[in-house]
Specification:
The protein has a 6-stranded antiparallel β-sheet. The chain contains 1 helix and 6 strands. A hairpin with a 2-residue loop joins β3 and β4. The chain is α+β, with helices and mostly antiparallel strands. It is globular and about 25 Å long. The chain has one domain: SH3 type barrels (Roll), CATH 2.30.30.
Amino acid sequence: MYRTVVTGGEMIGMLAVSKAGHDKGDTYVIIGEENEYVYLADGRSRGVERPKKKNKKHIQVIRKICLDRPEDGYKDLEIKRAIKKYQEEANVKS
């Protein structure tokens, strides 16, 4: 379900923290990428059906953890679990 990322490349599946805006400090999973924008979901207020569009400059990508991309797309429950696991391991507040 998870894999460790060593180098750059595609950002889909990686965790990211918002650096700007009213959601500053919130953790998301990148579920889409388009030019200078990414689409983010947290499985709660921003699910895969209604992702948040955010400029790449306004996020900090967490390259330690990357979700494997399922063929049928990401599920909100998987995203919530991945974020919760990261926050518990990194001792980060939600």
